[in-house]
Design brief:
Length: about 500
C-alpha cells in the first residue's frame, strides 16, 4: 500500500520539482548578472550617491538661484536710468505780412535732450540733463537754444522711510533664505528615503534567504516522511501535510522576490547611477541590518535639537520676518504723498547753435523752480486694506510657528517612543525565534520515533518561519524608527558624517 501511494503521487512530485527548479533557476539568473553591472553599495555610499545624482534634488537645488534673481530685480529700482530723445518737426503756417496779406511760412525744428536720474533709498530722486533745439523758418530767421539742468525731489511723507523703500530687497533675500531651507529639507528627506529603501531591500533579500532555507527544510522533511511511509513506520496520511508545505514556502519565496525587485528599482531611482540601462543593474548590499547598541538621550534633548535645527521651523521664522517687512511697507502706504522738489536750469540763446552753447556760459541767465506736490486718495481704502492684511498675516505667521513647533515636538516624542518600542521588540522576537527553533527540533525528533504527526511538524516549521521573518522585520523596523527620529530632529546628515558644504551646488 505505501508503494502504491508513492507511485500515485510521483507525477505530481515531478511536476512540482520541475516548477520549483525553473523558479530557482530564474531567481539565480536574476541575481547572477555580469560583475561589471553589479553595483556594490554600503549605506553611506548609497546616501552620498543619491545626494550627488538624484534628479529630484537637482531640480530643487535650482530654486535658490532662481530666487536670487528676484534680489537683483528688487535692487534695480535704485539703478541709474538714462533717457534721451530727438524730435524733428516741419510745419507750414500762415502769417500776415507788412502789406496785410497772408503768406505761407515753412518752419523746421529739431530738438534733442538727454538726462540721467537715480532714485535713492532715502526717498530722494536726483536728475541731471541737457537739451538743445534749432528752429529754422523759411523767412530766413533761425533760433538756437542749449541748456543744462539739475533737479532733486525728496519724499517728505510716503516714500521717505528707508526701511520701506528697501522692503522689496529684504523680502527677496528672505525668500532666497527660505528656499535654501527648502533644499535642506529635501536633502534630509532623500537621505532618509535612501536609508529606508536600502533596509527594505536588505529585508527582502533576507526574506528570500529565510524562505529558501525553509523550503529546503520542508523538502528534507518530505523525503524523510516518504521514507518512513515506505518503511511502514508512518501512516500514509502524513504525506499530505508534508507535501502541502512545499507550495506554501514557494509562495512566500515568490512574494519575497517581488518585494526585492521593487525595492531594488526604488533604490536605483534614488541613487540614479550613471548609464542609460541602470534599471537592470543588480545591487550588492555590503551592509546588513543589525540592531545597533542603544544608549538613548533624554527625549527632551531630541526635542530641543529639532526645535533648533528643523528647516521647516526656520522657514516659519523667516515667514514672520517677511510679515514684519510687509508691515513696514504697508504702514508707509498709509501716509499721503508729499514731495518737495527743486530744479535748476540755465539756457543759452543765439541764431547759430555753437553760439548758443557759448552764451550758456557767458550770459547771466538761469531758471529756478521749487515747490511741493501733494497726493492723497480719499478714504485710502487700498492702503488700509493692505495694512490690515499685513497685520493679520503677521498674526497668522506667529500662530503657524507655534502650531508647527507643537507638531514637531509631537512627532519627535512619537518617534522616540517608536524607537524604544521597536528596540524591545527586537529582543522579544529574537527570544521567540530561538524557542520556535527548539520546538521544531523537538517535534521533528518526536515525529521520527512516531510520537508526533506531520501536521504538528509542519505547524512548527511555519511558526519558526514566521518568527524568523518577524525577527528580521523587527530589526529593520528599528532602523526605520531611528532614521525617522533623526530626520525629524534634523540630525540625520550629521549622524551619517555628511556636511551640506561638501555636496555639489548648482
Amino acid at each position: 500500500m505505501p508503494s502504491d501511494l508513492a507511485s500515485s503521487t510521483s507525477p505530481r512530485r515531478r511536476r512540482l520539482a520541475a516548477a520549483l527548479a525553473a523558479f530557482l533557476t530564474a531567481l539565480a539568473s536574476t541575481a547572477q548578472e555580469p560583475a561589471a553591472e553589479t553595483l556594490r553599495l554600503s549605506l553611506d555610499e548609497a546616501i552620498v550617491m543619491a545626494l550627488e545624482t538624484n534628479l529630484a534634488l537637482a531640480v530643487e537645488r535650482l530654486t535658490p538661484a532662481i530666487r536670487q534673481t528676484a534680489e537683483d530685480e528688487a535692487q534695480a529700482v535704485f539703478d541709474p536710468v538714462v533717457n534721451a530723445d530727438a524730435t524733428a518737426r516741419r510745419e507750414r503756417l500762415e502769417r500776415r505780412g507788412a502789406d496785410g496779406r497772408f503768406r505761407h511760412v515753412d518752419q523746421d525744428s529739431l530738438a534733442v535732450s538727454g538726462a540721467i536720474s537715480r532714485h535713492l533709498p532715502s526717498g530722494t530722486t536726483l536728475t541731471a540733463g541737457a537739451e538743445a533745439s534749432v528752429n529754422d523758418a523759411s523767412t530766413g530767421g533761425q533760433e538756437s537754444a542749449g541748456g543744462l539742468y539739475v533737479g532733486a525731489t525728496q519724499a517728505l511723507l510716503r516714500g521717505r522711510s528707508v526701511a520701506a523703500n528697501l522692503a522689496r530687497i529684504r523680502e527677496a533675500r528672505l525668500l532666497t533664505a527660505q528656499s535654501e531651507h527648502e533644499v535642506r529639507a529635501v536633502i534630509e528627506a532623500i537621505a532618509a528615503d535612501v536609508e529606508d529603501t536600502y533596509w527594505d531591500l536588505a529585508l527582502a533579500e533576507r526574506r528570500i534567504a529565510i524562505y529558501t532555507e525553509s523550503l529546503k527544510v520542508a523538502e528534507q522533511y518530505l523525503r524523510e516522511t516518504r521514507e518512513r511511509i515506505a518503511a511502514g513506520t508512518a501512516a500514509e496520511i502524513e504525506l499530505y501535510a508534508a507535501e502541502a508545505e512545499i507550495p506554501l514556502r514557494r509562495q512566500g519565496l515568490i512574494s519575497a522576490d517581488g518585494a526585492m525587485k521593487i525595492s531594488r528599482l526604488r533604490l536605483l531611482r534614488l541613487i540614479n547611477p550613471a548609464g542609460d540601462a541602470f534599471w537592470d543593474r543588480a545591487i550588492d548590499l555590503t551592509d546588513q541590518p543589525q540592531a545597533p547598541a542603544m544608549d538613548p538621550d533624554p527625549v527632551a534633548d531630541h526635542v530641543a535639537l529639532a526645535l533648533a535645527r528643523r528647516p521647516d521651523l526656520a522657514q516659519a521664522r523667516l515667514q514672520i520676518d517677511l510679515q514684519d517687512v510687509e508691515l513696514v511697507r504697508t504702514r508707509d502706504g498709509l501716509l499721503p504723498r508729499l514731495d518737495a522738489f527743486i530744479n535748476l536750469g540755465k539756457t543759452g540763446y543765439a541764431r547759430a547753435f555753437p553760439q548758443a552753447l557759448w552764451n550758456l556760459g557767458t550770459h547771466d541767465t538761469y531758471a529756478v523752480t521749487a515747490g511741493l506736490t501733494y497726493e492723497y486718495a480719499l478714504g485710502n481704502r487700498e492702503a488700509r486694506a493692505s495694512q490690515r492684511r499685513a497685520v493679520l498675516g503677521q498674526e497668522q505667521a506667529e500662530a503657524a510657528l507655534a502650531n508647527l513647533a507643537q507638531l514637531i515636538e509631537l512627532d519627535v516624542r512619537t518617534a522616540y517612543v517608536k524607537v524604544a518600542s521597536t528596540h524591545e521588540q527586537v529582543a522579544a522576537s529574537a527570544a521567540t525565534c530561538r524557542l520556535r527553533q527548539e520546538t521544531l527540533r523537538a517535534e521533528t525528533e518526536k515525529s521520527r520515533v512516531g510520537k508526533s504527526t506531520s501536521f504538528l511538524v509542519a505547524q512548527a516549521q511555519r511558526d519558526l518561519l514566521a518568527s524568523q521573518i518577524v525577527e528580521v522585520e523587527a530589526v529593520v523596523e528599528l532602523l526605520h524608527a531611528l532614521t525617522t527620529l533623526y530626520r525629524l530632529e534634523s540630525s540625520l546628515l550629521e549622524r551619517r558624517g555628511i556636511a551640506l558644504g561638501d555636496l555639489p551646488r548648482d
